[in-house]
Write a structure and sequence with these properties.
It is built from 1 helix and 8 strands. By secondary structure, it is mainly β.
Amino acid sequence: MKKYIIFLFTLVVFAACKDNDPVIPGPQIQDLEVGSKNSKTVQRGKDLHLEAQVVAEAGIEIVRISIHPKSGTEGWTLSREVPELAGKKNGEIHLHLDIPADVKPGLYHVDIEVKDKAGKVAEAESDLTITE
């Protein structure tokens, strides 16, 4: 009888500790397109087409975009936030970023970071070639 009571007590304790909170997935970045028709190239002095779909069940806290040279530290950089998506559960990044005419041509790296209100982060990246 004593073993039966201990068994029931253990069962009740573990059943009471069961986590019933739903698991909210982290943010996602989908369908990233860099350059016209996803060419991953842009001519300096022109604008860079950048597009992606963003989903964050917990709500978007911040979206950051950065572009920097792929190797070394010399070259043009850009850092930008997309505040119009803050607070939404999903949205579209659709930007046309001006590339200065005096940018050094070469290989660059595009990073997109989405942080949701639960503190989870998603990142997407792409190469970019800036031509003369």
